[in-house]
Amino acid sequence: MSHSDLRNDVLLRALLREPVPYTPIWLMRQAGRYLPEYNATRARAGSFLGLAKNPAYATEVTLQPLERFALDAAILFSDILTIPDAMGLGLSFETGEGPRFAHPLRDEAAVARLAVPDLGELQYVFDAVSEIRRALDGRVPLIGFAGSPWTLACYMVEGAGSSDYRQVKTLLYQRPDLMHRILEINARSVIGYLNAQIDAGAQAVMIFDSWGGVLADGDFQAFSLAYTRCVLAGLKREHDGRRVPSIVFTKGGGVWLEAIADAGSDAIGVDWTVDLGAARERVGQRVALQGNLDPMMLFAGPERVADLARRVLDSFGPVQPGYGHVFNLGHGISQFTPPEAVAALVETVHTHSAALHG
C-alpha cells in the first residue's frame, strides 16, 4: 500500500511540512487505560506484556481509539522497553509499580556482556505492525516508535523508573566509557529495530527521549542527543517509494530546541513548557513541531478543553508553506482522563485549525 492508498495522509504531510487542510492530531498513549475497552482487552490478555507481545491483542487496542475519535494516526501498541527485554535484562511489570528489570547493568562485567539483540526476539513487534497495517486498511498512517538510546539506558542501569537517576548518573560521571558503550549498543539496536518496523509497514517513526531532560547541559548533547542523531542517520528515509518521516520527543528539551532541530529528524515533539510560536521562530523551517497541550488540561471539562486547545493552535499561528504542526499532548495521556474530554479536543483541533491553514 503506497502513500496514495492512504485515505487520510494529513499527518505525514504535516510532518514533512507540506500544505494540509487542517492540523492533524494524535495522542501519546492514545490506546490506554482511560478507555474502558482497552481495560477489557487487557484483562483478557492477562497482563501488560501479554497484551504487548500478542499481535492480535496489540492490533485490537491500537484500533480502539480510532473507533471512538477521529484521530489522524494510529501508533503501534508496544513499550519502549522491548529492546532491553530482548537483551535479556528480565523485564516484568508489577501492577501499579511500572517496569522492573531483574538484571540491571550495575558493573563492568554486565556492560561487557551487553550486545545488540537478535531482531528475531522482537518478531512479535514486527508482526503486530504488519497486522495493524492490514487492519487499518489505509484509514490513517501507522506510527512506529522506540525509546532513545539514553532513555533506554536509564531504565537498564536503574532497573526501574527513577526519581533521582542516581545509578545512571553515577555511572555516567564515574565511568563515561561504560556509559558510552551502553549507548552505542543501544543506538545500533534502535536503528535495526526501527528499520524493521518500517519494513513491516510503519509509515512514520518516533524516538521517545523521555528522560533526556534530566541531564545537565553539555551532558545532554554528549550522552543523549549524539546518540539520537546517530539513530536518525541510520534510519531508512524511504519505503515503498514514499518518505518515512521521523519525530524526536525530548521531554524537558525545550532549552535545547535548536540543537534537537539540527539532529536530522523531520519533526520534534515539545512539552507544555514551550511556547509554540516562540519554538516556531527558533527552529524556522528546519522541522515540523508536534505538541503540546498539558495532559492535565483534559481534566478541565469539555468546554474548557476546547478553549485550551484553541489557545495551543493560536500560539502556533497560521500554518504557512514550509511549516508544519501536529497537535499532541506534551506527554502521555493520563489513565484517569474522561474520554469525552478527548472527543472535545479532537473535534476542536479539527474545526479551529482549518481556519489557520490555507
TrEMBL record:
Residues 24-33, 143-159 form the Uroporphyrinogen decarboxylase (URO-D) domain. One of its GO terms (cellular component) is cytosol. It is found in: Cytoplasm. It is an enzyme of class 4 (lyase). Pfam families: URO-D. Keywords: Cytoplasm, Decarboxylase, Lyase, Porphyrin biosynthesis. Substrate binds at R29, Q30, A31, G32, R33, D79, Y155, S210, H331. GO terms for biological process: protoporphyrinogen IX biosynthetic process from glutamate. SUPFAM superfamilies: UROD/MetE-like. GO terms for molecular function: uroporphyrinogen decarboxylase activity. Pathway: Porphyrin-containing compound metabolism; protoporphyrin-IX biosynthesis; coproporphyrinogen-III from 5-aminolevulinate: step 4/4. NCBIfam families: hemE (TIGR01464). Catalyzes the decarboxylation of four acetate groups of uroporphyrinogen-III to yield coproporphyrinogen-III. Belongs to the uroporphyrinogen decarboxylase family. This is Uroporphyrinogen decarboxylase. The lineage of its organism: Bacteria, Pseudomonadati, Pseudomonadota, Betaproteobacteria, Burkholderiales. The gene is hemE.
